[in-house]
Amino acid sequence: MSATGVTPAPTVGRPRAFDMEKALQKALEVFWRKGYEGASLPDLCEAMGINKPSLYAAFGNKEQLFLKTIELYENRPCAFFYPALERATSYEVVQHMLCGAASTNADPDNPPGCVIVQGALACSESATFVKEALIAKRRAGEVALCTRLEQAKAEGDLPAHAEPAALARYILAVLQGMAVQATSGANCVELKQVAETVIAAWPGKKPEL
Amino acid sequence: MSATGVTPAPTVGRPRAFDMEKALQKALEVFWRKGYEGASLPDLCEAMGINKPSLYAAFGNKEQLFLKTIELYENRPCAFFYPALERATSYEVVQHMLCGAASTNADPDNPPGCVIVQGALACSESATFVKEALIAKRRAGEVALCTRLEQAKAEGDLPAHAEPAALARYILAVLQGMAVQATSGANCVELKQVAETVIAAWPGKKPEL
DNA sequence: AGGAATACTTACCAATCGGTACATTATTGT
DNA sequence: ACAATAATGTACCGATTGGTAAGTATTCCT
After folding, report:
1. pLDDT given for residue B6 in this prediction
2. Does residue B40 belong to any structural domain of this protein?
3. CB of B201 within 8 Å of any CB in chain A?
4. How far, in Å, CA of A37 to CA of A14, rounded?
5. How far does the CA of A41 sit from the C1' of D30, in Å?
6. Contact criterion met (CB below 8 Å) for A176 and A117
7. Which of A88, B111, B168, B204 has the fewest CB atoms lying closer than 10 Å?
8. Which of A37, A52, A74 delimits the end of a domain?
9. Of the candidates A34, A117, A118, which has its C-beta nearest B124's C-beta?
10. Looking at per-residue confidence, does A193 or B209 come out higher?
11. Which chain B residues are closer than 8 Å to A40 by Cβ?
12. Tell me, what's the pLDDT at A5?
């Protein structure tokens, strides 16, 4: 198993004629817009600018390609979530999460919504593995936020009666709902209003004005 | 065009050997669990206990069958939304919506989540019509709630600075997020905690204790 | 220059997709 | 009894699905 998780470029043989990262980015766009099952191999190949045997040689199969695009997604467009956890107060944490979600979910340069939500929400049995991988990603985010809110509670940043698990679930529900709203056509301003509504009622300490 | 929208039972010819409403109910379950595109005709036929020609004769095609199941869905399991609008105060309106969603989204007797959310969130071009029909359903709910909140504001039930459109969008986002949570395995108690978090911070007048 | 190794192109595969033609069976009206 | 009508079961349709075999082209190493 390589340390980077990426197959190292071989020193011999014909060199690859396309950029794997750019191809992944294009595949991500297709999966993002159409979901795992709705994206066909011709769709993917056309967007990636390669043909099927190249796709299979480089990425394994459709399922593995999808999982790799999700990895890319978490490191690039959706990169607001985990960094937000490092903010000083729970107020700022949720503020950055919700505002980041509003921006990326309704970014006109990307498909609307969130691929981790809409990539495989309801699907046939053949996509069960992918569906559960996305469930795990969503749950991981919830657990991470819950841990952060427990810390906030311990620090007195959240009141003693606060329930970090319930609050984390609530915030994740709002984030996921914002993704649905974005796929329905909501724009960034509209999503920021949702974010603002949540933030205004946040039980944690607010920053000085 | 018939008044009921249902083809009247013909007086001559071989009688239908299955109950259309029960078959629709079974089809709804399949679409609910697998989504519009993830549900294949064999899936549907098996669940409905009929075969393809009967399905097409009775319901038109897959798309029309889906739209009919959505109609059934709105009148049956998901029947908490519009009735909730008739409550006396905005507090009770959102309380009933959120608690109703918690119950039906995580009802162990039904598939998890909400078919109007997950039926066709991200899909191929061939499902565009269905996808937009669901978007329209979601938007209609949002508009109806917004109208109800405008009334609440006019009645002094909501403060003068309240923005009904933003609040309605927020509540719908939470409802849709709860559906996503349910498909991820959240149970009724967990969803009720989300509902309670929202209700506790609702800006409208709270009922007497 | 000549392997060895890798990627690309074309053409194909079985399985499944949504949808239907056709013959058969069951019912009503006369 | 007999036509008219409608639902059923079987068997099929072309198109598309994810995936691959095989031949060709391009590179590195000796």
Report:
1. 56
2. yes
3. yes
4. 32
5. 40
6. yes
7. A88
8. A74
9. A34
10. A193
11. 124
12. 47
Res B196: pLDDT: 98
The predicted pLDDT at position A209 comes to 67
pLDDT in tens, B17-42: 999 999 999 999 999 999 999 999 99
> Quick one: A60 and A83 in the same domain?
no
A94 in a structural domain: yes
The boundaries of the domain holding residue A35 are 20-74
Residue A129 clears pLDDT 70, i.e. is over it = yes
Q: How far is B121 from chain A (nearest CA, A)?
A: 6
Distance B133 CA to D20 C1' (A): 39
Q: Are residues B68 and B85 in the same domain?
A: no
Does any domain span residue A3?
no
The closest alpha carbon to B190, from B70, B110, B105, belongs to B105
Cβ(A163)–Cβ(B193) under 8 Å? yes
Q: Contacts of residue B199 in chain A, CB cutoff 8 Å? A: none
Binned at pLDDT 50, 70 and 90, residue B207 comes out as confident
What's the confidence (pLDDT) of residue A9?
A: 74
**DSSP 3-state assignment of A2?**
coil
Last residue of a domain, one of B29, B53, B74: B74
The answer to whether the beta carbon of residue A22 comes closer than 7 angstroms to any atom of strand C is no
Dihedral (CA of B55, B60, B65, B66) sign: positive
Closest alpha carbon to A196 in B163, B18, B69, B208: B163
Contacts of A134-140 with CB under 8 Å at 24 or more apart are A134/A70, A135/B183, A135/B184, A135/B185, A137/A70, A137/A74, A138/A172, A138/A176, A138/B180, A138/B184, A139/B184
Query: H/E element holding A86?
Result: none
For residues A52 and A100, membership in a common domain is answered with no
Average pLDDT, chain B: 95
Structure confidence at residue A79 as a pLDDT band (50, 70, 90)? confident
CATH number of the domain that residue A59 is part of: 1.10.10.60
Are B58 and B112 contained in the same domain? no
Indicate whether A42 belongs to any domain: yes
pLDDT band of A208, cuts 50, 70, 90: confident
Q: Is A164 part of the contact surface with chain B (CB cutoff 8 Å)?
A: no
Q: Are residues B67 and B146 in the same domain?
A: no
Residues A195 and A111 in one domain: yes
B118 touches chain A (CB under 8 A): yes
